């Protein structure tokens, strides 16, 4: 009897996870073609292949759903950047672009103007990680702190624009190729 309860509990938990993931993916897919304001719960449920009752069994509103999507994406990014030391620059950059590639639809939303508070949080984490890496890469003592900080901010802006462009392209270079380009540019700017 205990084994049956454990199996049922496990199945139920898997079902909840699958349904929530399916609803998240449905909203992400819908937002690739329309704005958030034009999407409603019925649209999300239909896209996910469930009914409205099932939607409301998992989320109180579409706002709760989009918040979960964006928060999970930011949490996953923060976990990624906290996992690697700046000494592992090539691996760090490649993993970042692989992550962007795997979650391209989510990052298009995160970096859109529809969710400015989440975009700001993500950019703050991006700035912090880039600043940390580049400060540890500093080799040239002849560059003033003011100029070095300017180089870092310039690099952050360039990185953000590169990410935007990368996500817009239908046929984009592989994360490996883009990582090689970013590494070449970064090391030539900061290590020479």
TrEMBL record:
Signal peptide coordinates: none
InterPro entries xref list: Homeodomain-like_sf, HTH-type_Tx_Regulator, HTH_TetR, TetR_C_Firmicutes
Taxonomy, superkingdom: Bacteria
Pfam families xrefs: TetR_C_8 (PF14278), TetR_N (PF00440)
The entry's keywords: DNA-binding
Gene3D superfamilies, sorted: Tetracycline Repressor, domain 2
GO molecular function: DNA binding
DNA-binding region: 40-59
Residue ranges occupied by any HTH tetR-type domain in the UniProt entry: 17-77
PROSITE patterns the record matches: HTH_TETR_2
Protein name according to UniProt: TetR/AcrR family transcriptional regulator
């Amino acid at each position: 009897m205990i084994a049956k309860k454990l199996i049922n509990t496990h199945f139920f938990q898997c079902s909840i996870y699958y349904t929530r993931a399916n609803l998240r993916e449905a909203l992400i897919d819908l937002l690739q073609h329309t704005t958030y304001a034009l999407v409603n719960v019925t649209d999300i449920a239909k896209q996910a292949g469930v009914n409205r009752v099932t939607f409301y069994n998992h989320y109180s509103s579409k706002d709760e759903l989009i918040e979960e999507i964006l928060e999970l994406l930011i949490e996953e990014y923060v976990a990624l950047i906290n996992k690697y030391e700046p000494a592992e620059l090539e691996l760090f950059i490649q993993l970042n672009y692989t992550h962007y590639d795997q979650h391209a639809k989510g990052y298009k939303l995160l970096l859109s103007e529809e969710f400015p508070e989440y975009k700001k949080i993500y950019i703050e984490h991006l700035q912090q990680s880039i600043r940390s890496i580049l400060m540890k890469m500093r080799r040239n003592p002849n560059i003033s702190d003011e100029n070095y900080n300017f180089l870092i901010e310039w690099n952050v802006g360039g990185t953000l624009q590169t990410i935007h462009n990368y996500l817009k392209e239908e046929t984009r270079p592989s994360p490996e190729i883009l990582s090689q380009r970013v590494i070449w540019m970064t090391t030539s700017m900061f290590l020479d």
